[in-house]
Write a structure and sequence with these properties.
By secondary structure, the chain is α+β, with helices and mostly antiparallel strands. The protein is built from 19 helices and 23 strands.
Length: 555
């Protein structure tokens, strides 16, 4: 014997105690420590406070009858194997004793050293094996618990499915709430679209097409939403005729992975399908990926762009300070947004609205930059067109009243600084309506364009010719030194307009009447001077047309 054992003998008969000691001394367990109790209560107390390797229990005791001791076997702490000593030799009694929690049963009439040694060895070995199996089972249970895997075992004969707590927790239930679980109730929890999936998978292992199955299924959570699980299963027991008897498997909650995958798919679709260009660079501003929209805007294929620096798009439209400020804000705030002019692969300029964002790791270090760009070239062109239309007449391309007002303010400030003159003229064509009536509005428009060109050729650089509307023009003459200089310019204008106009095959003769207001001879703002010039123009028309008149000066 390798080490001493502690044996408990619960026996109130001294003769049986002596006999047990005698036989024990004749075995390999002669050195065992033998504890003795005569009452059931004593044995209970001893088992709770002392280590015992194996206990022998007589069922007839002073404080417990045969039946009471038999029924109380379950009350003994499960610290060692229990062998019942009985004087009854029939098998029914022995089976009853084992059913009530005993590990073995020994007939006192058969007690001898060989039998005793065999019973001790057998029960200690079986108890050790049971302990090791329990330890292994607990180890496996701990592993399963740590991996958060739900387990299930399906008995195809009883149709019952045994599950662990985690299987039920995945769906928001306790294990008890789902018991008894059958394939029918399990199917009720499953998404209807997945019924055929699991049926096909089970058939594949029933027919030995594969050793185990694996698939993804949806189960309804207690709160109503669907839970995605990865289901695995394998047939562990087969009948002699080849039919499956027991299938075991696992369920793993993969809802988070499915949702993450869905988000990745959505992000990939956005990356691919969005109309905005996307460029991703590493921390050193080397391009690592671009989307199709980027390629459409820039003209560079994905393979051409990857590995390059975004400055391959540099247009030269911005100075070094622009880019320096861009990077300062990007590094300080993590983003930059603004309009930028770049140049595509063909060399053409294009405008884009660009947003650059820095992507950080868990240590707050920049890992990537993501640029989102929108081609706004057409918008900028439209904006410029609107800006032009806000200041110019679309027919004659002359400045309109808005631009005239701005130039008048500048000219007025210059005249006040330099003590020079400026003149505002109001010119109206004579006989323009008959031209429209006879030749049509298309010819009339062409005539207005020719008139605008002739007036523009006569005035000086810095002067402004404005179309007021219809056949009316406003002329701003600036930096005049004398009234005579002003008259010379006006005379040239009238001479030019008195010359015949060739429009298509038609020769057209018209004239013009104009009125003028001089500053500072007649002080006032633009509206006041225009009003004065208008009055003077009507005086010119009244005098016989194709003439000009100065407000006040010619009265």
């Amino acid at each position: 014997m390798s080490e001493a054992l502690t044996i408990l003998l619960l026996e109130d008969n001294p003769d049986h105690l002596e006999l047990f000691e005698l036989f024990l001394a004749m075995t390999d367990y002669a050195g065992a420590h033998l504890s003795h109790a005569t009452r059931f209560s004593e044995a209970q107390a001893l088992l709770e406070h002392q280590h015992v390797d194996i206990a022998f229990v007589d069922l007839s005791l002073p404080d417990s009858t045969y039946g009471q001791t038999l029924s109380q076997l379950h009350a003994l702490p499960a610290v060692c194997p229990y062998v019942v000593l009985t004087s009854l030799a029939d098998n029914d009694t022995m089976l009853t004793v084992v059913d009530h929690g005993a590990d073995d049963c020994l007939n006192k009439t058969d007690l001898n050293d060989v039998t005793l040694a065999r019973v001790i060895h057998y029960n200690l070995s079986r108890w050790q094996l049971r302990y090791e199996l329990a330890q292994e089972k607990q180890r496996l249970a701990d592993i399963i618990e740590a991996t958060q895997v739900g387990t299930w075992e399906w008995n195809l004969e009883t149709h019952q499915i045994d599950i662990n707590a985690r299987w039920a927790q995945m769906l928001g239930y306790t294990r008890q709430e789902l018991q008894p679980l059958t394939m029918a109730t399990r199917r009720d929890l499953m998404h209807p679209d997945d019924w055929s999936v699991i049926d096909d998978k089970l058939q594949s292992i029933y027919q030995h097409e594969q050793a185990y199955y694996q698939c993804e299924l949806r189960f309804r959570h207690k709160k109503g939403h669907w839970v995605w699980v990865s289901s695995r299963g394998k047939v562990m027991d087969w009948n002699t005729d080849g039919t499956p008897l027991r299938v075991v498997g696992t369920h793993s909650d993969i809802s988070a992975q499915k949702h993450a995958m869905l988000k990745l798919q959505q992000a990939a679709k956005v990356f691919t399908d969005t109309h905005e260009g996307i460029v991703i660079t590493d921390a050193d501003a080397r391009i690592i990926d671009v989307n199709p929209a980027f390629c459409r805007v820039t003209g560079y294929a994905r393979e051409e762009a990857i590995g390059q620096n975004p400055r391959l798009l540099k247009s030269g439209h911005h100075d070094a300070l622009f880019y320096e400020l861009l990077w300062q804000q990007l590094l300080a705030k993590g983003f930059w947004r603004g309009e930028i002019w770049n140049r595509n692969k063909n060399g053409d300029l294009y405008a884009e609205l660009l947003t650059i964002s820095a992507i950080y790791d868990e240590h707050k270090q920049i890992q990537q930059f993501v640029g989102l760009l929108t081609d706004i070239t057409q918008f900028k062109e439209h904006e410029q067109q609107l800006e032009w239309l806000a200041h110019y007449d679309p027919l004659t391309k002359l400045p309109n009243r808005t631009l005239l007002a701005d130039r008048f303010r500048q000219a007025l400030a210059q005249a006040q600084r330099q003590f020079s003159l400026l003149a505002v003229g109001f010119l109206d064509l004579d006989g323009f309506k008959p031209v429209n009536d006879r030749y049509g509005h298309e010819v009339g428009d062409l005539l207005l364009i020719e008139v605008a060109e002739r007036i523009t050729q006569v005035v000086r650089e810095g002067d402004t010719v404005c179309r007021q509307g219809g056949d009316e023009f406003v002329i701003l003459l600036v930096n005049l030194s004398t009234v005579e200089q002003c008259r010379q310019i006006i005379n040239r204008i009238h001479q030019q307009l008195a010359e015949p106009f060739q429009i298509h095959q038609d020769v057209i003769h018209i004239g013009a009447s104009s009125g003028w207001a001089l500053y500072p001879e007649t002080p006032g703002d633009l509206d006041a001077l225009l009003d004065q010039a208008d009055q003077a123009m009507y005086q010119a028309k009244a005098a016989g047309k194709n003439q000009y008149h100065f407000f006040d000066l010619d009265d």
